[in-house]
Fold these 4 entries.
Entry 1:
Amino acid sequence: MEEQITPLKTGIKYGLYLGVFGMIWQLILHYGGLENFSQDLGMLDWVLLFTSIFAGFIITFLGIKYFRENNEGLLTFGEGMSVALFVGVFSGLLIAVFMYIYAAYIVPDLGEVIMDSFDTDEIPADQAEAMEGVMSVMSSPIVMSFTALIQSIFMGVIYGLIGSLILKKGQ
């Protein structure tokens, strides 16, 4: 008997692929010395950012395509969006756990590194102090994990909109 392919099963499979890619990509950036937390992004930073976005789109697109190919060649917009949303959720859960480990244990001073990258010399002392307070909360491992989850879901929706429109095929 042939296994039934569903958006959930496809989303889990490709979400794991995207999550593993995201973890490996982050480790390459970290250990390759390619992380840039400054406000000034150079050409290499933009190339790395767009490479990451493109890879996320390709993996999600391949998940939607896999579902269509295993669904008698048919794909509704809603099915494509469902696959993409599940890819975003499951990759986000995996990356959120990884980001917590990364920020808490691999780079425990990540919050300080991020705060040091902001130039507070040109703003009043009370605003600089308030900014440092907000940044200390935002750069905590738990908040970074939650942010990674939300970002993955959001990007999954964006990728799904594009991929579903391209691959949509009715009867």
Entry 2:
Amino acid sequence: MTTAIINSEEYLDLSFKISGAPIPLDNGYIIYSALCRICPPLHDLDTVGIHPIAGIPTNNNYLKLTHQSHLKIRIHHQQIPLIYPYLAGQTFEIGQESYQLNIPDYQPLVSSDNLYSRLVVIKGYQDATTFQEAVKRQLNNLNVEGNIELLTRYDGTPQRRQLTITK
């Protein structure tokens, strides 16, 4: 895997209001796949990111969309014309359900001294110790310094996929 170092001034987040039926709680790949079906160029972009969608968790592992739910796509500003016509104001499907996107707003990236992620996956690193070492290597490759903390369960064992980085 190659790591891309990005200049944050060249990237922004497109923020689409999203409406429709509840979506699966862990929806990152499902959303990405559905968007690639209506926006084929999205699949070929190496440095695009899709943020988790906010909503209200239900008791059956779904997320109820609200008026505050947005699909946010982090993208290089020069790549916006490649995806905008496919996504702005469009509908996409997941299974039998349809979801509507509005015309997006954009938000410039804002730097932060702290980072939290609910879901971090590094292929091939399932053990907590080797996972943390892989995180350190990737951050070093990006020249990012900070303290890495894996969140722990109530019994003290690390949650391998929840990560906090502080300066």
Entry 3:
Amino acid sequence: MHAKPTGNVFMTDSHLRSVTKGVTWRITATMDTILLAYLVTGTFSTAVKIGLVEVMTKIALYYLHERMWNIIPYGRIHGVGPTHARSLVKGISWRFFGTMDTIIISYFVTGIWFHSFAIGGFELITKVLIYYVHERVWGRIKWGRIIASKVPATPHKRNGSVHEERVRDKEAILP
């Protein structure tokens, strides 16, 4: 059984961890997109064009998605990582944005809506499964994970009035 955070302890990820997760995901996902685009269009050069354009747009989208989920505490267990439910919900939310991007890019490359929606539709299945596995693997990696405890402000007297002294958060970045 996983222990829930107590008191003012919380877990967050460093920016470098988010970038690294984005790069590893993009490599994996681009290979999947190229394969799916080839199966739909039958043209390897078209599939590679779609995959290469996605590299540019999706790394930025994924980083923004990671930072958005970094502030959402749902399903995050202190010192352990994400729950299965968090990984699944996060995967579904990412897939929505990722599929819209794939459909638009596929249309610009092929000019054929049917191909665009077919590639996007197949991705709904393959990418959710692959993303879930990616999240579970990264959930076991402690590198770049920050465990922090909020230290409450302490009141003290200065010039006859009470002021709160702000104390910085204590952080432990896991190697």
Entry 4:
Amino acid sequence: MIVFQLIAVPLAALLFLRSAVKFLRGKGHRWVAALTAAIWLAAGITILQPEVTNTVARLLGIGRGADLVLYVLALSFLVALVYFYHKVRRLNSDLTEIVRTLAIRDALNGGSRGLVNTPKDPPAERSGMKREAAESPSDAE
């Protein structure tokens, strides 16, 4: 075993166990925990036995295991990109709906209250400080 394998395989095993425990306990989305566990298991196996990627690549008609890994990573990146794009669009839509609802509610209640109640006193007076004490020495000249 090389040094990388001595470090990476136990790490992948720990992360696999963590995901498997999350799956078995039912915390969060079970399919995410199962997918994460499968990814860590595959990572551990391919780090421990790199020739596995060559065998799988040949079965799929791809020349080398490194090419297979690159294709899987590229496809995973594209899937993640589309997923997060749609998630951001949905969050934007939800936020727009909330702001519209609040604006309409405030307009129907006789004016805008705003989301933050800003006091009329300056910060120095609110904290008990006097304006003279808050002035710098250069202001006193």
